[in-house]
Design goal:
Layout lengths: L3 H10 L5 E12 L11 E15 L5 E5 L5 E4 L10 H13 L8 E7 L9 H17 L5 H16 L6 H8 L4 E6 L4 E6 L4 E5 L10 H17 L13 H4 L8 H25 L3 H17 L6 H12 L4 E5 L6 E5 L5 H16 L5 E4 L6 E2 L3
Parallel strand pairs: 3-5
Antiparallel strand pairs: 1-2, 1-12, 2-5, 3-4, 6-7, 8-10, 8-11, 9-10
Helix pairs in contact: 2-3, 2-4, 3-4, 3-5, 4-5, 6-8, 8-9, 10-11
Length: 379
């Protein structure tokens, strides 16, 4: 059976690819902006995926095509990074080279995806993870799952310039059907938790751009706060190591805006661990309450929400949802809604109707379940 990237590859270059892989997008149940601050996260891989097909060519340059625009783009891993999506292709090439892996001098890359772009569902990590896996097969490189995570992370963080943690790449590799994944930063640990429910995703319609944007600004604020606190506590290694009692004593040590950023990291880390306990016990009402608390913290302390997301959360809760919150880095993207199966359609209809009345457009919404991580595909 063919896959969409292989079909696009053949339609573009009239030949078949050598290798293909796919990786999922992700929805983060809870744990936003904690991973790069040393705290836990709890994402799950979604059913929507990105497929990448690769093949050697006789030319001297790399080329890439995406189902988004159907145009063939030249890709160079030298000099300045491209400003288009091909930056992720160039970033992966550079990550391989940094590791000492020699890739072919000329490769064609075809990308097809059902992961919404700009919706906070990690379409970029899905692309990087799938491309790393496909190129490893193409070059005959033995690749562990941990190495797959690291190469994709280095491509996005070191070369594209997104100041992210490793959550997105980790769940794109280690995702399992009907499970969420609790990821602890220190000590590094992963634990699968049962999550066999349907989640409703409602897109705000406001896209976000991570590299060089607000995420990097928040990362810089967190780094500044940690640096200032370490002047009095040299042993402090991350903001997530602080307690809520510590936060109450920060008013005279940090600017007010940095206190809010730190408070979010500390309280969100606690919510993740409580959510893991609730999920393990099938206490979905409590899990939903934690999601709403997390959204309020994103809105008030981390200032990473948007008016559309705030409204969706309010309307979903009013229609009978267990919980809802903005998922992903923020400043747009999508809201994740948990609700009883019997109430899911009623919640969806209510949110759609009220969104249309207030914002004059119908929001894109869809359901998904926890799915599998990266895999090799037949070409």
């Amino acid at each position: 059976m063919s896959n969409p990237a292989s079909d696009l590859f053949h339609a573009t270059w009239s030949t078949h690819p050598d290798n293909c892989a796919s990786a999922p997008g992700r929805a983060n149940l809870i744990g936003e902006h904690t991973d790069y601050n040393g705290g836990p996260v709890m994402p799950f891989a979604i059913e929507q995926r990105t497929w990448v097909a690769v093949g050697r060519s006789s030319g001297k340059t790399w080329e890439a095509v995406s189902s988004l625009d159907g145009r063939v783009h030249p890709v160079s891993a030298g000099g300045r990074m491209p400003r288009a999506w091909t930056a992720y292709v160039a970033g992966v090439i550079r990550a391989f080279r940094t590791r000492g892996v020699e890739l072919p001098p000329s490769v064609r890359v075809a990308v097809a995806s059902t992961v919404p772009v700009g919706a906070g569902l990690s379409s970029s990590a899905a692309l990087a993870v799938a491309l790393v896996r496909a190129l490893a097969s193409l070059s005959g490189t033995r690749l562990t799952r941990v190495s797959n995570v690291e190469l994709a992370y280095r491509a996005e963080h070191d070369h594209v310039g997104v100041q992210c943690g490793r959550m997105d790449q980790t769940i794109a590799v280690f995702g399992q059907p009907d499970h969420a994944l609790l990821i602890e930063a220190r000590p590094a640990a992963r634990r699968l938790l049962p999550f066999g429910r349907t989640a409703l995703m409602v897109e705000t319609g406001r896209s976000h751009r991570l590299a060089g944007g607000a995420l990097n600004d928040r990362h810089a604020e967190c780094t500044e706060a940690l640096s200032m606190l370490r002047a009095g506590r040299p042993d402090l290694t991350s903001l997530a190591d602080l307690t809520e009692a510590d936060v109450l004593q920060l008013a005279n040590r940090l600017p007010r805006v940095l206190v809010r950023r730190v408070r979010h990291v500390v309280t969100e880390s606690q919510r993740v661990r409580e959510a893991a306990s609730a999920l393990a016990q099938n206490r979905f009402r409590r899990l939903g309450e934690l999601l709403v608390e997390g959204h309020a913290s994103l809105r008030d302390d981390f200032a990473s929400s948007c008016v559309e997301a705030d409204a969706i959360v309010e309307w979903a809760m009013g229609a009978g949802a267990w919980g809802a919150r903005l998922t992903g880095a923020g400043w747009g993207g999508a809201v994740l809604v948990l609700a009883p199966e019997a109430a899911m359609q009623e919640v969806r209809d209510a949110v759609t109707e009220r969104f249309l009345r207030r914002f004059g457009r119908t929001p894109r919404s869809w359901t998904t379940r926890a799915a599998a991580g990266v895999r090799v595909e037949r070409v």
